[in-house]
Design brief:
single chain; about 850 residues; 5-stranded antiparallel sheet; 7 helices; about 5% helix
Length: about 850
């Protein structure tokens, strides 16, 4: 619930706090910000400052939970702790810090034993609001300080006990806000008993009085005067070891006045390079403060002394830059002995070397290895400061920039590319142009600053500068560019001049490659040349060379040339290249000549007729070029030379050859074969003929197996046309036909008549000259054949001979009526067939 702070009345009631169990007891924290609720089986805390009721509910923290404990009432005690009763138990729990939110309130289970007694449901009633003291505050806890105490609440009176028995009567005070000077450093339990009206309470707090730093109250710091003006830069930190031996656990600050040091105002910020404000001496103050904020001050006397090293003492060191960054390695350790010799023998000295004046004055970052020092941060030049201090009192005995370090640039030896050259006269040397070598190597450098040296491969000194032209074989000349400012010659750069004299190849002449046209097509102008010796002829013993071949159209060919090499007449360029220097080239040409063969033709095959013994054939080649003169040679198939005449007359079948050879010196010849075949006129008879007649498709077939050795063609009823290769005719009309068999080779035509039996289906004997009689077609070639004609009743009306003109449609001089009539044919070849036909008037 909330209260009106003026009237104390309830103004709102919070009803929705639902702890995990049935609540029994509640209690507020001493500062009223937190609410504690006991329930079965535990205790929870709620933050009353969380906001809305739901937020307060959600802030609940379970501090203790146990199903075995009957948690009862809660009671805030006069010691500002909350006590938790547990019914029937010999222990009660305690919340040690009830003002702390969360588990930090330090809930302690079974913290207080009841000495054999048992707790009931509650604890003695105590009105806590009258006796709670918020706490004791105090300040000034360094030893020797006056420590002041304050109460957070308004009280009527108070009695203080400072737990400092050594302070005698000052150990107690009745002041409400007392002060006390503790007699020794240490820890004290200070208590106060305040009174408000008739009520009292006790509050205790622990007070620790801290010791002061242990220091030297007066110290001195001496510094060398670097320019004899009485002023110098001091590193105040150097005096700290003389002030205190516990600086690692203390804070040391420096001030120009004691008042500033006491009040920690205006500390010196440039403490490592502080310059004295008065000539030759000055005073500053050090404030030494420990971790407990307790401090003391020490007086620091600053004294400027004069250096004992002569101003005329200067040492210069020169080294060569090792990587063009102005940084290099120096060894100036030899100076050490010289410095020591300036002081009395046996005097204890501390000699250090510094990269700059600030480090020397501050005695910071000394150069640790003077025999291996790199001037990092000071490219090209650096002044090294020497500082000499007394070994007993650290007095500055000498200070100054007495060492000068110079990093001399490494000379630049620019690379020079010497073009490879071909040995132009096969002597292994070449006159190289070296006119630009020197200027290229030194670039923008002056010959007054650098010197050039030339060494051959055997490290022999060459003329400087090199003579131009420079006659040499292949070799590498070393050129050294030396910095003249370093006398020992150790600062130099080198470059190499590589002179290469490459062997000039030779392309030896190869004789013309001449041949006649040949191959499958001996008219294409190509010949398969044997190239097996060409490359060896071109090189003639040279090794390590490349050989390239190019056609007349500058197309690169395979290397080596294919073997055989199919080529027409052309000139091929051969390049021999030294692969070590591709500008070393020699060339030659190889001429390939393909002479054409005699160009002629001759008819083949040709035929002689065995059926005509007088038949002959003249074999006559037809030359394309009538102006050329040839030699002729005729041969039979068995190799017999028959004639050397331009033509040959033959009557015997077989294979003949004619060879024409050119007489222009090339010797190219061509041979052609002429096949002379035999043929004959066909020998045909009726046994070679097969006829299918008296049908809807009459056919004639010829058996060619016994016709003869000719190649024949066939024609029906036409001697001079309509020949066909197939020995078969169909749809042949009935009647007498003449078959012609012709030899395709011209050996003659044979013929034979063939009878194809058939008859007309209708005839009209009306004396108009058309179809006036009826007869079997083709029967006249079968003279023994008989034709019998019947009427429909089987009465024989007429018997016809094969050679008669046929039946005229009468019987015994009487005209037969229009009707169908029947016939029987008995052919002389043994065939018989029947049929009928119509007579129409």
């Amino acid at each position: 619930m909330n209260f009106n702070i003026n009237t104390g009345k309830v103004v709102s009631l919070i009803t929705d706090l639902n702890p995990p169990g049935n609540p029994y007891g509640i209690e507020f924290s001493p500062n009223s910000d937190l609410l504690y609720v006991s329930y079965y089986p535990g205790v929870s805390q709620y933050n009353l400052l969380a906001g809305a009721p739901i937020d307060i509910y959600n802030s609940g923290v379970v501090l203790q939970s146990s199903t075995r404990e009957p948690y009862s009432s809660l009671q805030l005690g006069p010691d500002a702790k909350i006590y938790v009763a547990k019914s029937g138990r010999s222990y009660i729990d305690i919340i040690e810090n009830p003002n702390v939110l969360g588990i930090g309130c330090n809930y302690k289970y079974n913290e207080m034993y009841l000495e054999g007694r048992k707790s009931g449901l509650g604890l003695p009633t105590f009105v806590s609001s009258l006796f709670y003291i918020e706490g004791i505050t105090f300040e000034n806890t360094c030893f020797g300080d006056t420590t002041k105490f304050l109460l957070s609440d308004v009280v009527d009176s108070a009695v203080w006990d400072f737990d400092d028995l050594s302070s005698g009567v000052n150990n107690k005070s009745t002041d409400i806000e007392p002060t006390h000077v503790f007699s020794n450093p240490g820890t004290y339990e200070v208590s106060v008993t305040p009174t408000v009206g008739t009520d009292t309470a006790i509050e205790t707090t622990t007070v620790t009085i801290y010791d002061l730093p242990q220091i030297s109250s007066i110290v001195e710091l001496k510094q060398c005067d670097d320019d004899l003006d009485g002023f110098s830069a001091f590193n105040l930190d150097e005096v700290i070891p003389e002030i205190t031996t516990n600086s690692a656990n203390e804070t040391i600050s420096f001030f120009e006045s004691q008042i500033d040091a006491e009040n920690n105002n205006n500390p010196i910020t440039n403490r490592t390079v502080y310059t004295n404000q008065t000539v030759s001496k000055d005073i500053v103050w050090a404030r030494v403060e420990n971790n407990n904020a307790c401090y003391r001050t020490s007086q620091v006397k600053l004294i400027v002394t004069t250096t004992q090293i002569p101003n005329t003492f200067t040492k210069n060191f020169y080294v060569c830059d090792d990587n063009t960054d102005g940084i290099s390695q120096f060894d100036f350790s030899s100076i050490h002995a010289e410095i020591e010799a300036m002081f009395p023998i046996g005097q204890q000295l501390i000699i250090n070397y510094y990269r700059n004046e600030a480090d020397a004055l501050a005695e910071e970052n000394p150069i640790m290895d003077t025999s291996n020092h790199r001037n990092i941060g000071y490219p090209n030049t650096q002044q090294v400061y020497i500082r000499v201090d007394g070994g007993l009192d650290n007095d500055c005995l000498g200070l100054g920039a007495y060492i000068n370090l110079y990093v001399e640039p490494i000379p630049v030896a620019n690379p020079v590319t010497i073009d490879r050259q071909c040995d132009d006269d096969q002597d292994g040397e070449f006159p190289f142009d070296v006119s630009l070598v020197e200027s290229t190597i030194i670039g923008g450098q002056s010959l007054s600053n650098v010197t050039l040296t030339y060494l051959d491969e055997n490290n022999n000194l060459l003329q400087n500068p090199l003579p131009n032209p420079f006659f040499t074989t292949s070799q590498v000349v070393t050129v050294r560019v030396t910095n003249n400012n370093i006398s020992d010659g150790s600062c130099f750069a080198e470059t190499a001049l590589e002179f290469i004299v490459d062997k000039q190849p030779l392309a030896n002449h190869v004789a013309n490659q001449i041949s006649c046209d040949d191959g499958a097509d001996d008219t294409d102008g190509f010949h398969d040349f044997d190239t097996s010796q060409i490359e060896s002829d071109v090189l003639n013993g040279q090794t390590g060379m490349e050989v390239h071949y190019y056609s007349e159209s500058d197309i690169e060919l395979p290397s080596p040339l294919p073997n055989p090499f199919a080529s027409g007449t052309q000139t091929i360029t051969v390049e021999v290249i030294n692969p070590m220097n591709r500008s070393c080239i020699a060339k030659t040409d190889i001429v390939f000549i393909v002479d054409p063969l005699p160009d002629f033709s001759i008819d083949t095959p040709q035929v002689v007729c065995s059926s005509d013994p007088t038949f002959t054939v003249v074999l006559d080649p037809i030359e394309t070029n009538l102006l050329e003169v040839y030699d002729y040679e005729w041969a039979y198939q068995d190799g017999t030379i028959l004639s050397n005449a331009p033509t040959l007359t033959v009557f015997t079948p077989g294979t003949y050859s004619i060879t024409l050879t050119k007489t222009d010196g090339s010797g190219c010849s061509r041979t052609r074969d002429i096949f002379v075949n035999t043929s004959e006129m066909a020998q045909i008879n009726q046994n070679d003929i097969s006829v299918v007649d008296n049908s809807n498709n009459n056919t004639i077939a010829i058996n060619t197996s016994s016709l003869g050795q000719g190649d024949y063609e066939f024609s029906l009823d036409s001697e001079f046309s309509n020949y066909q290769d197939i020995p078969f005719f169909e749809n042949v009309s009935s009647g007498i036909h003449t078959l012609y068999v012709r030899d395709k080779k011209g050996c003659g035509i044979s013929l034979i008549d063939i009878s194809v039996i058939g008859y007309p289906k209708v005839f009209t004997p009306n004396n108009d000259g058309y179809n006036d009689s009826w007869q079997i077609d083709g029967v006249d070639k079968l003279p023994e054949s008989k034709i019998l004609i019947y009427d429909r009743y089987g009465k024989l009306l007429k018997e016809l001979a094969s050679h008669s003109t046929g039946w005229d449609g009468t019987f015994n001089g009487n005209l037969m009526p229009s009707n169908d009539y029947w016939f029987i044919v008995n052919l002389s070849d043994g065939r018989t067939f029947k049929g009928h036909f119509s007579l129409i008037r």
